[in-house]
Each structure stands twice: as structure tokens, then as C-alpha cells.
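Hi W.,

Here's what went into the run:
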Amino acid sequence: MTSREARSVAVVAVAQTDHVRAADGLSEVEMLLPVLRDVLGRTGLSAGEIDFTCSGSSDYLAGRPFSFTMALDGVGAWPPISESHVEMDGAFAVYEAWVKILTGEADTALVYAYGKSSAGDLPEVLTRQLDPYYLAPLWPDSVALAALQARALIDAGGTDERELAQVAARSRRAARDNPHARLRGSPDAGTLLESDYLARPLRRHDLPPVTDGAAAVVLAAGEVAHRLTGPDRRPAWIRGMDHRVEPHGLGLRDLTDSPSTRLSAAHAGLFDEGAPPCEVAELHAPFTAQEVILRKALRLGEETVVNPSGGPLAANPVMAAGLLRIGEAAARIGRGECRRAVAHATSGPCLQQNLVAVLEADGPAEGGESA
Amino acid sequence: MNTAPSHEVLSAPLVVEFPFTRSLGPVQSAFLTGLRERTVLGVRASDGRTLVPPTEYDPVTAEEIRDLVEVGQAGTVTTWCWNGSPRRGQPLRHPFAWVLVRLDGADTALLHALDAPDGPDSVRTGMRVRIRWAEERGGAITDIACFEPDREGGTRPPARPAPHTGEFTDPVTGIVAHARLDYTYTPGRAQTRYLEALAEHRTMGERCPRCRKVYVPPRGACPTCGVPTREQVEVGPAGTVTTFCVVNIKAKGLDIEVPYVYAHIALDGAGLALHGRIGGIPYDQVRMGLRVEPVWTGSGRYPDHYRPTGEPDAPYQTYKELL
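Here's what came out:
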């Protein structure tokens, strides 16, 4: 689905926490609330003036049932608001909100996501998302599954350990310019390669940092988007967005490729004939080898800067890390630093499910409803 | 930025344990029963591939698939990684390799552990491995204890696996999947302040700066206005029963005689009711408007229950907004 003949929808405001190893002094709503205040403040709207609210989180992270209902305390849900939640990354909540606006049921949407991974043992917690018959009883942790994928890519000639170290070093050095990131700076690839394996072929630098954090965006349609963005910012128009899933059986998939990303990108308009290349790609690749796979699936070349924010290798608040990719790409367009960007989010083991959004600076004319 | 006195934030271990009882489809049942009988079954997909582990539905067309075949018990590693520090619940307690193995006759790979006593340098993609069966088997993926290097070689069965009925005596129809996750629970600033005051026999709420409502217990935000609540307000100690129920079912692990009364109690000065047990009065004499106060017992950090104060009942008008 593309938005070509439908309403134009833009990301008009972005906010996030300073991401930390453990926000253990704060409850989830206490961690989230300043981000909600910030993102709404940028638009001048109150929660009651937002047409639709959608969030992404998982009770498994903090081990707290119905944590998303507690998080709603931070929104201000009275009188009753139109609200929804996905037990997924907040990027998938953006998709739901985008569709809601495209249908004309809403003009504005607040989307937020948060994760306090520090409360549990994240690699172990993530085993509970796996097939309960054949995988979960073996407790294969998320690092092991990513390592199987990296090995498959290396053996297929798709990368080597040096390139993976370069991805890690480049990401964390880029994060020096990102005050919200958790890891800012890195030794060079050669130094990184001197460290021991953590889960051969992966070393510590190939893994994302365990992170607590939250993020939020506001979406708006057409004229409303222009009004809410303010004079010193521009809306980041969602040119298209799509998400696709692959089989859950790891052995059924080619782990060295991401056909679901490629198909999502095609539907999102990334490969449209005559479309200019993206200057920026924000990729939700928590493990280094996954960036290599995604670059290929998205056909990214030298002209595209990948993860100038540092990406999930610099801050990986699970459930918010994909939303942050959309937020970072939109913020870059909002500040006038680029005109076309692609954002990607993933869910499940080894890039099982993937979402791609194409964002552009050029939207409908002022006062117009469609491009 | 915080007007309240700072406290060290509370934390406590939290264990979440849950056994999931799951039923099996016919293909999964045949596969897991087969493992119990040291037989590995795959299923033929519509494109001719043999899927191991088998699925109930075709991964491409979503059709039901039922043509079972028996595949080999040795196979080839398609990818691997080293696990130097096995975690709780994983197949082996000593360092091992995770592997995806394509069994002979199968077109897809199965995830499991490879026992590689010679370490990571002895493992490579393409190596031959074979199943080591668990001594006790009950129809689960863990009936395969792990894989081990297949040093014999040359034992490959025919390329085309033989059809199998999938019928066994006493088939497995379900599994119980145990899960346990360990957390460190931290209630955050507002609830830490609340719990610490309670331990000192004081009930502290927080007032919303916008709507002025006093939340007890506080959660750090006004759910109506969506703004932080920071102003500390002591409420109670006495309060009014706004509504109640009589509990006739004994809860597991709870040492309270039934029937007893569980009530909503609006503490004096609070903007909403909290809930607690009513004691010190026969259950059938509890009523709306009853005035009660908290009772701490022993070294308890929170009230054990609430008992009547002996004051006259509160008029309905005084608490009707708090129902």
C-alpha cells in the first residue's frame, strides 16, 4: 500500500529519553512521561486533542502484566481516548496509526514505545517469543540466534569479521553526535578484533547494548501537519510504509537474505522508478551482520549514510528501537538535513519480520490535502 | 526537580513461572511421538521439499500438509555458533555449539545443540553430525539430547526418504512447556515513597497539580491529566468503606478464614478508594459508609487489614463521588 492517492501523513514531532543501561530508579510510566510531555509540547497539542494514541511495549521485558495500561497514566486518558496497543516495537504502532489516519478516522496520532530490559535477562526473555514446540524448550538465546545468522553470512561470503567490526565502530562513532545514545564512541575495527569471542563468530562489539528507554512521535495529516510542525521545522512525509513477515522456523529461511525487507521496501516506494536515492537510512539492525543483510536488501549504496544516529548498536531500548529509526529519520528531515530517508524496524529472531518506511521532505503544497 | 525527600529506590526479586499446556496438531504429534521412538519424521511440502522439523501447514501455500516421511538421523551442519557459557534450560551444561542441521533426506534445518568436546575449532559448516538420543524420552524436542560429530561417515540413507504413516501406539497429543524468568522488580520513585511511608505507618498520596485530585497509592502521574504528580499529601489514617464484597473462596496460600470482606476504602483526604480487607467485625455487619482504620501487625510494612473506628457511619453524600 502506498499513500500516493490517499491522504498525506507526516511525522511532525519526535522525542526520546537519554538511553541508559538501567533506569532502575523509575517506573515505566515515570520513564515515559517526560517523553510524552516533550513530544506533545513540540506540537502544542494536549493528549485530549490527539485523535488516536497507539503504543508498543512488551510485558515480558519488565515482567509486569498489563504494563501498557499503567503507561497510559502518562498520557492522560480521560475523557476516554481512542487508543490501541501492539505487543511489538513502536514502529508497528506507527503503521497502525498511519493506516488509521489514511482511512480518515483521525487527523493526528500520538505513538510511543518504551522498554525496561534491565529488569530481566534480555537474551533469556527473548527466548519466550520463539516457537514453543521446537525452539523454546531449548532456550536458545537471542545472541546465539544472531550468531548463527552471522556465521551463515560469513560462510556464504557475504561479510567477514573485519567488516562487522567496522560496522560497530562506525555506528558508535556516529553516536558521538547523538546526546541520547548509550554508547558514544568506539576503538577502531582493528582494536575491536583483538577482543575475545562472546558467541563465536560474534564479539561483544557485534551486540547491541542492553538499554532502558522510550521514544514518541506525533503523526498528522495534510494541512494539520504543516500547522503542527512549527516555523523552524518541516514535516517528514511518509511516502509509503509496509511490513512483511517470514516463517518462524529458522531452518526454513535463508538467514543470509531478507526478502521480507526487500518486499516491504518495494511496497513503500523505495525502489520507485525515478525516485531519488535516500540520503539517510536508519536501520534497526541490533547485530552487526544484520546491517550487512539489510543494506543489500534495501540496495543501499555509497550515497546513503547508514545510522548517523548510531543506530541500535549505540542504544537499543527494545520495543522503542524500531520507532527510534522512524523518529531519527524524520528528525533529520525535520531539521532540513536531508530530503529523503528510509527507516527500517524489525521484530522476531534473525530479522523475521520487517517494516520499511520511506520519508520525504516534499509533501503536499501548503493548504492542500494530497501530493 | 523533585519536591519530595529522596529515598533509595526499592527493589525486590520477582520470579515469573508458568507452565503452558499446549495441544499438538497431527503432524507435530507424529514428529514428537517419533522422537520418543527414536524415529525422525519430516513432512512433504507442496513444492516437494521435505520439512524437518515438520509444520502443520505449508509455509508457502498455507495448505494443510500430511505426507510424512522418515529422514536420517545424521546430517550436515548448515550454520553454527559457539556457546561458551550455557544458560539454564539449554541442552548441555558444558560449552557447546548451537547448530542448524539438515538431516539426510530433509531440505530444511533443525536447531539444536552440538556436543563438540574438541572445542570451537573442531566445528565448521558442512561437518557431519548425528543425533544423540536422550535416555529418557517422552515426546519432546529434548528427546534429542544433542547432536555429536559423526566420525563414521558413509552412513547416508537413500536420498529420497521413505513414506511413514506417522502412526505409533500411545501418541503424544500435548506438551507442557515450563518457563521461568527472573526479574528484579523496581517500583519507581512514587511507589517507593508510598511503600516507605507505609512502613512508618503513614499513608502518603500525591496531588495532581492540575485537577488537584490526591492519588493513593500514587504512581507518579495523574492518569486523567497525564502530568507528573509530585506534591506529597498525607491521608487517613481513617477512611470510609465505599463498597465491598464478601469473599467465600479460600485463596491458595492465603491464611485467612472465609468468609471475609474485601472493601474499597476512601481514606480521609484521598481522591479515590484503595482496597483492603475488613476485620474486627462480623462479615455480615460490614456496610457502605462504615468508618475504618488501618491495622499494622508485627513488623509488617503495610496494613494487614482495616477495622471499625467506632465512629458513626459516614453519610452517603460524603463519599458518593468516590464509588
